[in-house]
Amino acid sequence: MLYTQSITILRAGIVEDDYGNEKADWADPVRLPVGGVNVQPAGGSTEDPEDKQVTVSGWRLYTPRGMDLDLRETDRVEAWGTTMQVVGKVARWPAPGGGVHHVEADLREVD
Length: 111
What we know:
This protein is mainly β. The protein has strands at 5-16, 22-47, 54-62, 76-79, 82-94, 100-109. Strands 1-2-3-6-5-4 form a 6-stranded antiparallel β-barrel.
């Protein structure tokens, strides 16, 4: 697997809504550039929200051995002009002897 791709992690700011609850603000996210990763297609699905068929593209992000990544389940990832959200937990695989062996994350395109 080649780790030659660059991505940008997008992290939303936090604002309060009219009721004082915290919510994500994607208007001006923090942008964290990252190089040396691999993003591959990981299948997709067809969904039917409100009688409108939508194709959802899935992706899988991998880091090389020994590379941890400041990626959270609430983040988004930008690559090739496409914005994707992290789906589920970010998997940090343990290395023998301690530390992180590599990171994997499922991604899904967002509008």
